[in-house]
Design goal:
Elements lengths: L2 H28 L4 H16 L1 E9 L5 E7 L3 H7 L8 H8 L3 E3 L21 E8 L2 E11 L7 H63 L5 H30 L4 H10 L22 H21 L1
Antiparallel strand pairs: 1-2, 1-5, 3-4, 4-5
């Protein structure tokens, strides 16, 4: 074997080993419980692969805007100061519309650049790659500024394109999983509806008949009324159990911000009051029952504020 052949074999071995590492990293991302967690893990892996200071992953909503925008390298304070997702007018939108990789050494000099919003950290180099399979666009990977200060090169682009191919499968799997969870919740609600009809409503009907018979026969007794009250208490417990099961399923799927928005939507808010929810748009870090209790506390606090404002 010649020296050239040995070098080529070594290069192939390095590439295969790197691809294996990328595949394992994306598999780690795919094991996350929700789509948003999958997206966050993918962007963390991508940032590490090319040693970028900043990384982001955008998921389009189908109407030219972004449904999700996950970042690494920026603090929550910086994100809060910027105040909104990218609107897709500049280079980020260019990648989404044209669905082609884009590598730029100086973003500010690119003819399609529209600059940065106020409070945005300064960034110079950009490597953007679409996450897609065939005609299906799942998202876009954005990397800015390598840690070593050098611009992104062809090898960086190759790695990110390879990672994007695996990421498309991971995102597709997470989306299917969430669709399955939504269908399961709908089926659970249908089941509860049937049980309410077959069980709870029939019990209420029987209690009503019992009270009606006592009234018609002029045989109303304290023990008979007590029996009806006990039966009603049991029905109330059954209904509470059904509601709790449905709420638990809902709290397992909604972000902190979404649940607090639901809390406020159930309250009557006078037009003289303005409500702004400043909460992270991510899943809660604790169990559904605990989060439900937190939301109930928030609802009671908000109700008191509205009542006394």
């Amino acid at each position: 074997m010649t020296t050239t052949d040995q070098d080529n074999a070594k290069d192939v071995h390095i590439i295969l080993a790197s691809l294996k590492e990328i595949a394992e990293a994306v598999m780690y991302a795919a094991e996350a419980g929700t789509l948003e967690e999958v997206l966050q893990r993918i962007i963390q892996v991508t940032q590490q692969v090319v040693r970028a200071k900043y990384a982001a992953l955008g998921v389009p909503d189908g109407s030219g805007s972004l449904k999700y925008f996950k970042t690494e390298g920026m603090t929550e304070e910086q994100m809060h100061a910027i105040g909104h997702y990218p609107v897709g007018n500049g280079l980020l939108g260019l990648i989404m519309r044209e669905r082609e990789p884009l590598r730029v050494s100086e973003m500010q000099k690119h003819p399609r650049s529209v600059g940065f919003p106020e409070h945005h950290p300064k960034m110079t180099n950009l490597l953007g790659v679409p996450i897609q399979t065939g005609a299906q666009l799942f998202g876009m990977l954005y990397l800015c500024d390598r840690v070593d200060g050098l611009p992104f090169d062809e090898q960086d682009q190759w790695w990110v394109e390879a990672l994007a191919g695996y990421a498309a499968l991971a995102i597709a799997g997470a989306q299917l999983s969430e669709q399955h969870q939504r269908l399961t919740l709908l089926e659970e609600r249908d089941r509860v509806g049937m049980e309410l009809h077959d069980g709870v409503i029939q019990s209420l009907y029987a209690i009503g008949m019992h009270l009606q018979l006592m009234r018609l026969s002029n045989s109303i007794t304290e023990s008979g009324v007590d029996d009806s009250i006990r039966n009603l208490d049991q029905v109330i417990e059954d209904i509470r159990g059904y509601i709790l099961n449905l709420k638990t399923s809902t709290y397992q799927q909604k972000t902190i911000k979404a649940c607090l928005e639901d809390v406020m939507a159930r309250l009557y808010i006078p037009e003289t009051l303005s409500v702004q929810i400043d909460a992270p748009d991510r899943l809660p870090p604790f169990s559904a029952p605990v989060f439900e209790a937190v939301c109930q506390i928030a609802q009671e606090a908000a109700s008191n504020v509205v009542r006394h404002a």
